Amino acid sequence: MFQLDPTRTYPAETESRTIIRFQDCDPLQHLNNAKYFDYYFNAREDQVAKLYGFAPAQLFRELKTSWVVYQHQIAYVRPALVSEWVRIMSRLVYFSEDTTITEYYMTDDRKEQLKNVLWVTSKYISVETGKRIQHHPAVMDLLGAIKLPGEDLHNIPFNDRIREIKHSLVK
């Protein structure tokens, strides 16, 4: 299980670089809308394990808990194209005793053009009962260590957040 190291600073944002695969694209050579989820979730799983030494499967095995997706908000800003290199960023922007909101966004390789933004709201559950429960204390420690500092972005309207991310990109 995750053990918080008080001497260590944990990065709030994860980043991966990947190429858009032909088999994931539609006839117009755009990344299929449903495939964004695969790219995001795979990138986050890899980076969380690498940066934080944590895998969600640990929750399932050790605590008999997990997160389940409750809601998605997604915006397709510009298409990701077949064989294009892209950057995928993710970060925890909110958490409470039983809920998390993770923000994902994709840009071109130079981080100049925003391609997509996704907010995923997840609920923490007991896998034995399927009911929502409070985060385990070690999970709360992890969430506190990796949350994006500052205000809870879940209070900002999604479209305003898209504009903020666009303006933050390299010009």
TrEMBL record:
<dbReference type="Pfam" id="PF13279">
    <property type="entry name" value="4HBT_2"/>
</dbReference>
<protein>
    <submittedName>
        <fullName>Acyl-CoA thioesterase</fullName>
    </submittedName>
</protein>
<dbReference type="InterPro" id="IPR029069">
    <property type="entry name" value="HotDog_dom_sf"/>
</dbReference>
